[in-house]
Amino acid sequence: MSWLENSIMARKGVARGKVGAEHRLTEVEQGSYHFVYGPYASPVLTVKPGAVVTVETVDAFGGAIKSEQDKPSEKLNFPYLNPQNGPIFVEGAEKGDALAVHIRSILPRGPQPAGTTALIPEFGGLVGTGVTAMLNKPLPERVKKMQVTPEGGIKFSDRITLPYEPFIGTIGTSPQIEAISSLQPDAHGGNMDLPDVAPGAVVYLPVNTTGGYLYLGDCHGTQGDGELCGVAVEIPAIVEIQVDLIKGWPLAWPRLETEAFIMTIGSARPMEDAARIAYRELTRWLAADYGFEELDAYLLLTQAGRVRLGNMVDPKYTLGASILKKYLV
Amino acid sequence: MSWLENSIMARKGVARGKVGAEHRLTEVEQGSYHFVYGPYASPVLTVKPGAVVTVETVDAFGGAIKSEQDKPSEKLNFPYLNPQNGPIFVEGAEKGDALAVHIRSILPRGPQPAGTTALIPEFGGLVGTGVTAMLNKPLPERVKKMQVTPEGGIKFSDRITLPYEPFIGTIGTSPQIEAISSLQPDAHGGNMDLPDVAPGAVVYLPVNTTGGYLYLGDCHGTQGDGELCGVAVEIPAIVEIQVDLIKGWPLAWPRLETEAFIMTIGSARPMEDAARIAYRELTRWLAADYGFEELDAYLLLTQAGRVRLGNMVDPKYTLGASILKKYLV
Amino acid sequence: MSWLENSIMARKGVARGKVGAEHRLTEVEQGSYHFVYGPYASPVLTVKPGAVVTVETVDAFGGAIKSEQDKPSEKLNFPYLNPQNGPIFVEGAEKGDALAVHIRSILPRGPQPAGTTALIPEFGGLVGTGVTAMLNKPLPERVKKMQVTPEGGIKFSDRITLPYEPFIGTIGTSPQIEAISSLQPDAHGGNMDLPDVAPGAVVYLPVNTTGGYLYLGDCHGTQGDGELCGVAVEIPAIVEIQVDLIKGWPLAWPRLETEAFIMTIGSARPMEDAARIAYRELTRWLAADYGFEELDAYLLLTQAGRVRLGNMVDPKYTLGASILKKYLV
Amino acid sequence: MSWLENSIMARKGVARGKVGAEHRLTEVEQGSYHFVYGPYASPVLTVKPGAVVTVETVDAFGGAIKSEQDKPSEKLNFPYLNPQNGPIFVEGAEKGDALAVHIRSILPRGPQPAGTTALIPEFGGLVGTGVTAMLNKPLPERVKKMQVTPEGGIKFSDRITLPYEPFIGTIGTSPQIEAISSLQPDAHGGNMDLPDVAPGAVVYLPVNTTGGYLYLGDCHGTQGDGELCGVAVEIPAIVEIQVDLIKGWPLAWPRLETEAFIMTIGSARPMEDAARIAYRELTRWLAADYGFEELDAYLLLTQAGRVRLGNMVDPKYTLGASILKKYLV
């Protein structure tokens, strides 16, 4: 993958994008999973820049929904949802730096059907919720289990097979002093549910505390834009990531790079604020690193910016704004 | 284009998608352009289903911005912005029907540089406006003129050439009793600024009054998702459309069809409401016409729905939600 | 009412706030009621500044809901809702002027029970609607009829009598070229549902067209902040207003004055934009007419501004921002 | 204060609203102030239900802004803003209970001028911020210091004296597993900036962890609705509260009681969601405790509900919805 050799990670990283030591974070080594992103937990692993870590994630329900007869309201125990691996302490990381996380692969694990989606009362994009508070009665609960394999795709129904397009739903660093629910996305990353956080991409995350404290979990076999009902094809997974460290690159919000484009990610309500965050970050990035005058960057993104809706269901909505690298030369 | 022969227009249209009489609506034949979508204007043209109409549109500024030295605040005269061709009276159209508008081609016209973008005070997605009211000072005004040709693309700058990806920024029918500014998108269509309204696509629009009263204008040479600063690559154009009529198909909001996907379009503030509208319409469409149980459609769109952000700058924001036809068989 | 002699209407009005000719606009004289605010209707009455007009309004349902057994979904015929009196042509009014409308009295009329409230499917602040689109089932329909008298108040139930606190739910001028549904509030006024538009107050409305074209209707016997379910105590009424004209006072949004305070009114979605509009207008008003430096006005309103929520149910939400006159000396 | 003897606190509290032991929490006894609401700090004080606690709060800037020449951007060190007293451990409090906090008095303390307001870059209701992200330049910074005394009021300027109407800007309990910035309001209370949280009122707060962990700080000498520029009349204060415990009263959101009314409090973005939360909670409360059928409560609040806007500047906006007790008999 030659583009990676010219990625921001390779050009700015402490390890120059080179692969370092290998680590494993199995379920057993993880022990307790975490339900907040914060500095109050003890690191489960310490790595040097360049480290490759193989992580065994559990699904967003911690495996609690085992069959289509299970009722989510009976099996789930709020706020103990969306369990996360980590935190991983990255040596040398200090506030004002950025972690670069190259996603090398995501594979489903565990018995089939490995995929779960569900209708959960008062959760989702087309229903009243705890905050978009309505008096209407909730929808009925429902669970769908799906076979998920890289080769065979996702068996949504007898008629419909969806492609296996896995990504990490929740990934981020610790906030400086807050401990934020793993259900929420924010400036530190978290539950962004953005399909671009997929194998091949490099995610750049702000470091807010010594060691960075990288958390991740909540893999999805595939997902539509917006994660409409709130539950994608949730899978337990084996995730292989490479972690590098970029010193002195303070990021207000997460960023992402692929072979084709660079992206900024905003999370907020209402949704237009997520779009404003993402596009302002991208405007400023073009001005800071790509030789554009700020207002010219604004005009260019008007004509060539692309938007990807991550989620429209979490406590904050997530949007990525991107531009093709070919316009940045 | 064989897919068209199996399009909804072909299957349900009065003219069965067949091409009928040809009409021209030149600048001269148009005479006065319109600044509202409403039933109070007299039709400039009456056509039968199947008619092909070649329309000469002016740009969103009515050509008032002629050079990069022009100041938009001096040249533009609110509310006389975004001039529209039409209304076109479609014989047989009654409330509860739908117009099918197949976009056959869009070509730039007039002297080069044909394309205009600009920064206009208190307008745009990253500035305070008349409704997202701020005390901050406005950005400076700016105009950029660009060569726009189908072969050569769009000369954004010395370094950057953007592809020619034209579409109709504003198209719709008359509301039943309202006359809505051509700057605004709503249930009748209007200023949606959605790049999918492009050559090859068929747009389906609700008929609210006898004759439907089709208006269009505001062509763009290309545009990024969201039309960030509020002004795309605005061009005067020659647009060729084919208009068919579908009886007894009441649409709450506009829809769109291409070879690959079907799309529903919502316009609202905040942006999540535009997404909710689009996705609810799509859910209901799958249930009505494609054999899905409604909640199963909701689950499928969660995994396979796609979102396109049209504009994040108009009086209402516009989003399209779509699904690939291959999942609907 | 001595404060009126020092009101803005008295100080700036063409008629100096003096009472002029008396006019009546009975149901018979009104003839057809209107369902849009626009310039396309013919004036039903022409008055000089200072005129006092006694208007017979019908309720928001045009009287269609006659008993608690009526089902709104069967009796109401969208978009023919919220019928309005007018337009009243005010001699001398030109774009850039303002109308001053002093509300002298509002009395219920017609047989008792004169008051109606109702639950209407997909309408209201705590339910999914056509734009906050949900898949949840609508609430059941319901109608409540209430005795409404100035002396006896409003008989909400055996246990509860609410005070008679009448106001005009919908009042405004014509937009310049649009015809806007009488269900919608906007910069021209319209369906603001703001309880401060009550007897004793003077409302100031922007003039956008020659003659101003004043419309009004939709009186409420009382209403809570936000008009939560979407339907206040709707009553047919006899409204007495005094209309004056202020030349050369361009208003971006409606304003209001009472003995105690001045208020600016914003209508938008999301709700924070309505608040931003109202507070920015008030900030600018303090700077323009009351000797404040703009940022000092901003600081003062931070400590002493008051907000009244009109509606949280209409196509735009309405908020009034006010400050006590005693701080403006 | 006889109404208190019939308050919910008196009727349901473990201490029956009776005054118990007296405690002091001076600056010295507090030691480190806190910048998050969470379960990870150690209690600074343990009390029994009925306890009266006298608390020395510092202002929202921790006293860092000492003169009108100070620049907030130089003196403030984000996220170390809005320092809080506590946590106070309430014996017997378990998840599912509620704390009742009767505010007995708030007095300014420290040298005069004790009050501070300021314009802080990218913070406030009428400016672009970190989330409502704009490209406009920030407003200039500004600091205003004010004399604040209970007798003499607040000297806003030579011309304007505002009344001393003190309240607690930030008060709440610990979330169950999160540690939430003291700048943010949410279901646990926090930075609500709601002027009704004033002497005489009883605030009811959900208990999410053993001991409840009560935090408070951020007193204001007065404040307008919405706290427009983001900074009220910030004062260090001596606050006297009485803390009682109500067993088995799970609250989804904070509530408040005065002699005249009961109120529910919602915090969310966009602002309409804060209103929806508050009004749904109030609807449900009327149904649960006051004998109303739910939809009848909805209709009553439509006619008699009142809304108070707390803040329109914090990470979530806060609104209180209330109804007069006289309608609940």
Describe this structure in words.
The structure is a homotetramer of 329-residue chains. Chain A is of the alpha+beta class. Chain A has one domain (3-250): Jelly Rolls (Sandwich). The first copy, chain A, is built from six helices and 23 strands. Chain A has helices at residues 2-5, 8-12, 27-30, 72-75, 271-289, 294-304, and strands at residues 22-25, 36-37, 45-47, 51-57, 85-90, 98-108, 115-119, 142-146, 148-149, 153-155, 161-162, 167-172, 180-181, 185-186, 189-190, 202-206, 214-220, 234-235, 237-246, 255-257, 261-268, 306-311, 317-324. In chain A, the strands form five sheets. Chain A has a nine-stranded mixed β-sheet with strand order 1-4-19-6-16-20-21-23-22. In chain A, strands 3, 5, 12, 14, 15, 17 and 18 form a seven-stranded mixed β-sheet that branches. In chain A, strands 9-10-11 form a three-stranded antiparallel β-sheet, with no helix packed on it. In chain A, a hairpin with a 5-residue loop joins strand 22 (306-311) and strand 23 (317-324). In chain A, helix 5 packs across helix 6. The first copy, chain A, is globular. The first copy, chain A, starts with a helix and ends in a 5-residue tail after the last strand. Chains in contact: A-B, A-C, A-D, B-C, B-D, C-D. The interface between C and D is large, with 54 and 54 residues.
